[in-house]
Design brief:
Elements: H1 3-7, E1 19-22, H2 38-47, E2 49-52, H3 58-74, E3 82-84, E4 91-95, H4 103-108, H5 111-121, E5 125-135, E6 143-146, H6 148-156, E7 163-169, E8 180-182, E9 189-192, H7 202-208, H8 216-226, E10 229-230, E11 238-242, E12 247-249, E13 258-267
Bound molecules: ligand 6CS and fe (iii) ion.
């Protein structure tokens, strides 16, 4: 057995058969004080996510949506941190928006988001990754099933699943326009994926991930246990979800765009080290290495 298989509870892409392993770490790391109610915390602990309706009011959402449109229109598709769709030049993601010096930087330190992250992660937090995902009407493309933590552990060196995503809905996310789909309670299990990571994997994986994704048999097993739910809500709502929750989303053939901004908070006690897989570090727009603590 390779040494990393015996010592790393989250080894992955090391085996030739998929495997579902227990998660040795907690989901809630703190004592509970913060903006989320006890009921919301229980839901998060059990299901791995919680949807908070209308945390941002109409005026705030209007300003955020305008800033997102501006970021998209100004984005240079030749840059690594701007991801275009494979089949067109449409912008799919703009990364590292928490360093824009403007709207999204302010958003990243907003206590409605960072306060909830501190409450769940039980420590100070910093932004590990941020991005705007655009899923335009008619041609929004899907995101295949994956656990973010599997990728962040193997490709970026995040030690433990002590991180979460806050997805701020910039448009209404309804069942029909490709909302986040989650497998409830899958965050309590760790799916080891099969296959070695190709070189410069991120260039492909951010458009259409093919490694670090569970096999179909693993997904059948997980859905058998937990079913499927979606993170729908009106614009201004926020979906908080655990870094190890199995999730994805379908395409959008409706005329109604689904645009969300994601802020990934990591515990300051869980800063990234060297990748646990065999490839070199990915670029910093995917995994911040500067721990700038969000002030309380
Ligand atoms: O590789 C990553 O870090 C990213 N990829 C996906 C599909 N989701 C999370 C994250 O932005
Ligand atoms: Fe993801």
């Amino acid at each position: 057995m390779a040494p990393e298989m015996t010592t790393d509870p989250y080894h992955s892409r090391t085996v030739d058969r998929w495997e579902i392993a227990p998660r040795p770490d907690p989901v809630l790391w703190g004592e509970g004080a913060g903006p989320l109610s006890p009921e919301q915390l229980v839901h998060y602990a059990e299901k791995g996510f919680v949807v908070c309706w209308r945390l941002f009011d109409e005026e705030e959402v209007g300003a955020l949506a305008a800033a997102a449109a501006k970021a998209r229109d100004a984005a240079d598709p030749a840059r690594d941190d701007v991801i275009a769709e494979a089949s067109s030049s449409a912008i799919r993601s703009v990364f590292r928006v928490h360093r824009d010096g403007e709207m999204f930087e302010r958003l990243s330190v907003d206590s409605r988001l960072a306060g909830a992250a501190r409450q769940i992660l039980g420590s100070d937090v910093y932004v590990h990754q941020s991005r705007i995902n655009f899923k335009p009407g008619f041609d929004g493309r899907p995101f295949p099933w994956h656990s973010d933590f599997e990728t962040w552990h193997i490709e970026d060196g995040m030690p433990r699943p002590r991180a979460l995503s806050a997805s701020v809905l910039l448009t209404d996310n309804i069942e029909q326009n490709g909302p986040l789909l989650v497998i409830p309670s899958s965050h309590r299990l760790y799916v080891r994926c099969v296959g070695e990571t190709p070189e410069n994997h991120f260039k492909e994986s951010l458009v259409n991930q093919a490694y670090g994704v569970p096999t179909r048999a693993a997904l059948v097993d997980l859905v058998d246990r937990g079913g499927i739910m979606s993170g729908t809500g009106p614009a201004g709502s926020v979906v908080f979800f655990d870094s190890n929750l199995m999730h994805g989303s379908g395409g959008n053939i409706t005329p109604l765009p689904r645009n969300n901004v994601f802020l990934v908070y990591n515990s300051v006690d869980n800063a990234v080290v060297e990748p646990f897989g065999k490839r070199p570090r990915r670029p910093e727009f995917l995994a911040e290495r500067r721990v700038d603590v969000v002030p309380t």
